[in-house]
Amino acid sequence: MLQYKTMYQDIQEAITLERNEIINHGLYSEIKTLEDLKHFSQHHIFAVWDFMSLLKSLQIELTCTNLPWYPKGSANTRYLINEIVTGEESDVNRVGERMSHFEMYLEAMHKLGSDTTEIKKLLAAVENNMLIENAIGDLNIAQEVKDFLSFTFDIVYNKPAHVKAAVFTFGREDLIPDMFIEMVSDLKKTFTSEVEDFMYYFERHIEVDGDHHSKLAIEMVKELCGEDQNKWEEAKIASVESLKRRKGLWDAALRSIQ
Fold first, then answer.
1. Cα 22 to chain center, whole Å?
2. Are 144 and 249 in contact (CB under 8 A)?
3. Which runs of consecutive H residues, i.e. helices, occur in the chain?
4. Which residues fall within 8 angstroms of residue 185, CB to CB, at 6 or more apart?
5. Backbone phi, then psi, for 129, in 5-degree steps?
6. What is the pTM of this model?
7. What is the pLDDT of residues 26-38, one digit of tens each?
């Protein structure tokens, strides 16, 4: 039977092409003005938001969120997901205030003057218990962004924990540091104080996800897939697809800027 290391390497090899296309995407170098950054943020905010639903779905599935409480699953997996949730849902912003990374991003958008109409429309729909597919369908956003969101919620509602964990890890956490390093490098050449909150958000993700969260997420995938080759194969297929959806979102953002 294949060992952890071999199966993990198999996923890494399978996602190499899509991962490199995202890390080297032409979008980053096209963000040359504040208006460009606004266009980018109005697309990216949806990925920042649905990330939390993917994360919370893992917490619900891997830990006990019911009453009365009982010890659900392995303590190691509970630790891994709860540690990530704490950091994503209640980090500190640039001035030391507690808030989620989504709230940080939304605050940065407000200060920049980005249009938050559609993301607020989505939040209102969700808070009013509208079906997520209807809420997404009602948005005035690029089809690629809708496809990205729809893929995420198909994973959230319909896929087992090991697939959710793989998409979370290889389509999000393990990708984010390298992706944002490219973006921060280009932004620093162009902007200064007017984008301090955005820079803090990006640099915080490079620091937290690169040094800590991505490692925890990888351990979570290994824990959930174990030595089951079928689970690793399902994880690989979903990971590749998640990266294709991210590239589509980036393509839509680039098209908006151009």
1. 13
2. yes
3. 4-14, 16-23, 27-30, 34-62, 75-89, 101-112, 117-127, 132-137, 143-158, 161-168, 176-190, 196-208, 214-225, 229-257
4. 28
5. 65, 30
6. 0.92
7. 998 898 888 999 9
